[in-house]
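Ex. 9. Protein: Trehalose-6-phosphate synthase.
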Amino acid sequence: MSGLILVSHNYARRSTLAALYESILSRRGGLWISWNGQCDTLAPDTPRALSFRHGSRFDTLTFPLTQQELEEGYHGYVHQGLWPVFHQRPDLARFGANGRRHYRKINEAYARAITEYAMPDDVLWIQDYHLIPCISLVREAGLLNRIGFFFHQPFPSGQGFEAIPDWQWLAESLLCCDLIGFQTLQDMNNFLLWIESEYRLERLSATTLRIQGRVITTGVFPVGIDLEDVAYLKESNSCRQTEQQCRETLPEQTLLSGGHLDSSAGLPYRLSALEVLLRAHPEHEGEIRLLQLAAPDAGYLPRAQEVAQHLESLCGELNGVHGRFGWYPVSCLTHAYSREEQAGIYRAARVALVTPLMAGMSLMAKMYVALQDRSNPGVLILSQFAGASEHMDGALIVNPYDPDAIADAIHTALRLPLQERQNRHARLMKGIRRLDCHWWADSMLASLTEDAEQDSLALQESGARVTGRYGRIRY
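Predicted structure tokens for Trehalose-6-phosphate synthase:
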């Protein structure tokens, strides 16, 4: 039976995404390959140490990066270069040869880890644009395993992908996949239209193509959350204490805003919307508070520092204009809260503003809804350009560039009667239960592995021996 190797960026960071991976692997078993979150100094021509740990439910294989790889490859090439391009802001992208070199080194480390431990019948599930070059590197190493790649980020429309200097090397790596998964139908269509305009290919179906001798399938697999993880967070002492503290110290009509601290977050538009709301509906003065979560690790240096400083300035201006003795409209929270503490804040908020200008998964929106008290739930206001908007029936959908529309949505959300809030919450939860993290994994891996057993039998019958570029003899 085929084994699963899940390949992701960071195993060490405690996040909703890491919790999803852990839940999926706990149920399915397999090997999780990831950076360990640490930086070490590596001597030239010395292989970095691989740390394998056998677990009761799944195994892990981790390794360190160098400081230069983290700063130049990850914070530099990925987040100053690729991130803006994938979020339709190529004008903000900054690429450099040094960044690309260290980005490739990161992917070479992943490729070596994969080739050292992958068996011929394993399927590889590689996560997100951090690891695009890794795909072709494992093919060059001789691995014939089926490879699925999932884009957590939106795929740029038109020829946006070509804003990446030397984009061809990334595109050629993507074309080494067997399956490419996307968050939304729009993202998949953007990819298919673009790839068809640049390469000679044969369309075998609406979602399958033959290109450069390989059959590649595409699909839409929206990422869901783990409701067992949500239940754990709800019952934790930190969640309960934080929720109680929020309810005792904050107005009943508390608004919540969060997300990455970057140019795609749409934070200035949210604050402008709050000012529009207070001017158009002065009855909300003294009755509402916007909590803006702005922890330093919610962004990517150095962009996060610039955005945080700008955000604090905007919040100060808004509080100066509309604040009064004993009340101010915005609290900018820079403390790094634990997941349990964040859950308590989510539960205490009457409205959540998840209005990025462009986003992929939008897990915050789903976590907010799932953490609500169904007998008295809050209301979700969601950007039409968030990846989750295609399948979150019950949210108030807004144009994140339009402060007037956001202000109207806030006013509507604060005035919705209990029965309407309950109805919207029930509809949202129906979708969240149906498309949870296990549906995400099951549906994508089912598509990926449908031919894996035949591939495995063919390998066994041929007795194939493959010598990889990293020197290990594979059977």
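Check your answer against this statement. Residues 133 and 173 are 6 Å apart (CA to CA).
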